[in-house]
Input
Amino acid sequence: MTAAHHIRVSDADRQAAAQRIGAAWAEGRLDDAEYDRRLAQAFAAVTYGDLAQLFTDLPAPQPAYRPPAAPQWPVAQWPVVQRRGALGEVRGTGLQMLLFVVTFGIWGYVYFFQTHEEMKRHTGEGIGGVPALLLALFFWLASPFLLSHEVGRLHERRGQRAPVSALTGLWVFPGIFLLVGPVIWFVLTNRALNGYWRSAGAR
Output
């Protein structure tokens, strides 16, 4: 271990590490449990040595100490969130599905409003909460396609492969004839949205 491993990290270093962990999760290199564990360790890291051990089995370049004036990792190597507004909320998939059931589907409108409003506030792009709610009320079938598209765009804007797209909405229609199709759509889309918010620093 070199002396660099004993140097204390900054909040920016922790944030960069969290983004890289999120990218590894989005690429399928980490499962949910391992993602949660490493993310917690990244935010609890004290030294560069603490961060370095989180990436020993990942293909990204290992963190190496640089003077404070220089980036801790080469900028091109790390996904960057073009953040203009507040982060959105991480919503448990199981809880959202339960709320949908116990409210006889009404919670779905709340979900569409909240998620679109958060993405609009965060990036300045997208249709926002009110148009999304109106779309869900009057042309509900289009809403799953649009939400998956906008979640995929969140990832693409920072140079990552989109884990979902408008085509993911096919799980709702015609996938509804498979009975579990809408459930698969929601799990994929909500997981991709949560992954983005977590990798940007939301907890």
Q: What stands out?
A: Residues 181-199 form the longest helix (19 residues).
